[in-house]
Amino acid sequence: MKIIGVNASPRMHGNSKLALKEVMLVAESKDAEVEVYDLNLMNFGPCHACNYCKRKDQETFIGTGSIDKTKKSNSWMLDEGHEGICVQDDDMAKLLRSMEDADALVLSTPIYFGQMTAQAKTFLDRLYAIYDSNFMERNGGIKFSLIISQGVVNEEVFKEYITYMMNNMITMLKFEKGDCVILTDNNKPNAIADKEEQQKAIDQLAENLKKQ
Ligand SMILES: Cc1cc2nc3c(=O)[nH]c(=O)nc-3n(C[C@H](O)[C@H](O)[C@H](O)COP(=O)(O)O)c2cc1C
């Protein structure tokens, strides 16, 4: 089993990263192969909406940037075109390639002004490359789980937004639905370290990563 962890907090010792590390440790203890990506340290930008990833013919291209023929190696690409391939050959392209044989993806993000971080949104937008493509059919699906860390004590405050966001990703990208854990009252970078309930919730998410 291969699990990809995506940390969308710029704090490398923050709660989102700490929670993700814990999930990965549990997964590793069950012999899973794990990879962690820190979005804030990666070289990648937003989706250019060029629709290169939607083209089944090699030549049609309406965006900016150059076409990298080496991307032909991606296994989900159709022979006659570049469906499912992002034209931007950056660190996100590497992550997308790694998703080809992943079983689960865990996104861990703080709440910034009532929403996911800009890093998380940029990552999700770049998944447009595999939206409406044959990626999931070829891949057998990926279980998508979410960890949220926020300052506000009341778990309900952003729940509607979080639930909507998660369901939207699952429906649009045909992910299998994993757990969603909301970690509250975490303004201090290491806050979750002494919170037993939050640790339990994180461990449970890790236990449930196995696909149905
Ligand atoms: C720019 C910014 C905006 C924030 N906005 C909110 C917010 O709207 N609601 C909230 O509960 N916490 C907010 N916070 C606090 C973080 O969500 C909280 O500290 C979180 O646990 C940080 O995660 P980290 O430790 O993984 O970096 C904000 C923090 C920053 C830096």
Q: How would you characterize this protein structure?
A:
It is a single chain. The protein has 212 residues and is of the alpha/beta class. The protein has a single domain (2-207), classed as Rossmann fold (3-Layer(aba) Sandwich). Helices cover 31% and strands 16% of the residues. The chain is built from six helices and five strands. It has helices at 15-29, 91-99, 118-126, 135-139, 159-173, 196-207, and strands at residues 2-7, 33-38, 104-110, 143-149, 176-183. The protein has a five-stranded parallel sheet with strand order 2-1-3-4-5, with helices on both faces. Helix 1 links the parallel strand 1 (2-7) and strand 2. Helix 1 (15-29) crosses helix 6. The longest helix is centred in the N-terminal third of the chain and has 15 residues, at 15-29. The radius of gyration is 17 Å and the shape is globular. The two termini are 13 Å apart. Flavin mononucleotide binds at residues 9, 11, 14-16, 110-114, 149-152, 186-187, 189.
Detail the topology: elements first, then pairings:
Elements: E1 2-7, H1 15-29, E2 33-38, H2 91-99, E3 104-110, H3 118-126, H4 135-139, E4 143-149, H5 159-173, E5 176-183, H6 196-207
Parallel strand pairs: 1-2, 1-3, 3-4, 4-5
Helix pairs in contact: 1-6
Bound molecules: flavin mononucleotide.
Helix tally equals 6
Global structural class: alpha/beta
CATH H-tier superfamily = Flavodoxin domain
What separation lies between the terminal Cα atoms? 13 Å
Looking at the structure, the CATH topology is: Rossmann fold
Number of discrete domains: 1
DSSP summary, beta strand count = 5
